[in-house]
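Hi support team,

I've been running sequence recovery on a batch of backbones for a student project. Most finish fine, but this one hangs at about 90% for roughly twenty minutes before it completes. I'm not sure whether the input is malformed or the queue is just slow. I've pasted the structure tokens below so you can try to reproduce it. Let me know if you need the job ID as well.

Thanks,
M.K.
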């Protein structure tokens, strides 16, 4: 391979690497600038940024929860149903059962981890596909939510909910809504687990090839169950925040968060660490969705624009993920077939052989 060909190949690789790693982040900035130019008096303001951070905190946390099983090659479709159950259950315990709100929140979050672990057990030990298994358990969660509420809302009494509980969502810190810092904390924790601890490396190996992971001695079933349990824990926490935000128990509210969560998780797998689910990519993907939805909302889009935007973005995310995987495969094949430099011929030896 000549020097100019090597340079062209290197530049092509760097361009592809930059687009794959930072393309979504660049799109986030461009979208913000685009809507700021169209809406200069309302979009690039602190109030609007605070509103976006507050409104998108729960979808972001839910998307981060969905990211954990995706790292193992599994999907948890019960997260929307689990979110609805968690937020109804915490209000049921506080309003109708009279529990102290910290105890109710702790029980719901731990219950989310238990339900997630149950999903993992069903998937791994019953050998049921994760799509089918979690769809079935999600339907059961939805039935349990309806049984708790009787199909009606849970409404607090005249005294309302404890102010300390509602402050979990309504308060501010450093001029920004507190839920934004919850998202930051979950991102940091998930980044540490997936990128810096052996557990995360095991999850990625399982996602790349369960049989290979089992051959090299990784207990795939145990770690897959842990991944689902981690997802359930995050979903339970998101349900607590949703209860503090809504302040009434709506048995069907969680279903609206399912599609945005998976859009964020799948689109995030095409950024920062292209080809694998990662926390930073997920939060960047959620930022793209949040800015896009806020912008088209301020431009006066109809109510149906939100599901249209989410569905279209999901298709784009899946398409980009498949294209990225095929591109990496082709690049690897070419790299294996073509030597980087031409090796000089070995000098002939003098004398008899």
């Amino acid at each position: 391979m000549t020097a100019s060909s090597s340079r062209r190949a290197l530049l092509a690789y760097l361009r592809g690497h930059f687009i794959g790693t930072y393309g979504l982040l660049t799109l986030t900035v461009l979208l913000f600038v685009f809507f700021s130019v169209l809406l200069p008096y309302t979009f690039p303001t602190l109030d609007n940024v605070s509103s976006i951070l507050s409104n998108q905190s729960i979808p972001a946390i839910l998307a981060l929860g969905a990211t954990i099983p995706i790292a193992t090659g599994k999907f948890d479709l019960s997260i929307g149903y689990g979110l609805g159950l968690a937020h109804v259950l915490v209000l049921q315990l506080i309003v109708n059962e009279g529990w102290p709100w910290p105890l109710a929140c702790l029980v719901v979050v731990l219950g989310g981890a238990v339900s997630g672990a149950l999903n993992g057990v069903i998937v791994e030990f019953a050998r049921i596909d994760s799509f089918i298994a979690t769809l079935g358990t999600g339907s059961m969660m939805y039935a349990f939510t309806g049984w708790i509420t009787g199909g009606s809302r849970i409404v607090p009494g005249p005294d309302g909910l404890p102010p300390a509980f509602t402050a979990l969502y309504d308060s501010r810190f450093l001029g920004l809504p507190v839920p934004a810092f919850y998202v930051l904390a979950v991102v940091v924790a998930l980044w540490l687990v997936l990128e810096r601890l052996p557990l995360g490396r095991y999850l990625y190996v399982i996602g790349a090839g369960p049989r290979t992971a089992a051959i090299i001695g990784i207990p795939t079933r145990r770690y897959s169950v842990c991944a689902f349990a981690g997802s359930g824990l995050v979903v339970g926490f998101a349900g607590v925040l949703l209860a503090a935000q809504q302040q009434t128990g709506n048995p069907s509210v969680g279903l609206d968060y399912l599609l945005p969560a998976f859009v964020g998780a799948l689109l995030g797998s095409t950024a920062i660490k292209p080809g694998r689910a990662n926390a930073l990519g997920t939060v960047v993907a959620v930022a793209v969705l949040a800015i896009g939805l806020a912008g088209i909302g301020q431009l006066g889009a109809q109510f149906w624009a939100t599901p249209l935007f989410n569905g279209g973005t999901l298709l784009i995310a899946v398409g980009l993920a498949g294209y990225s995987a095929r591109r990496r495969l082709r690049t690897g094949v070419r790299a294996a077939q073509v030597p980087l430099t031409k090796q000089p011929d070995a000098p002939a030896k003098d004398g008899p052989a």
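--
Follow-up from support: It reproduced on our side and the slowdown came from queue contention, not your input. The CA atoms of residues 210 and 296 lie 42 Å apart. No action needed from you.
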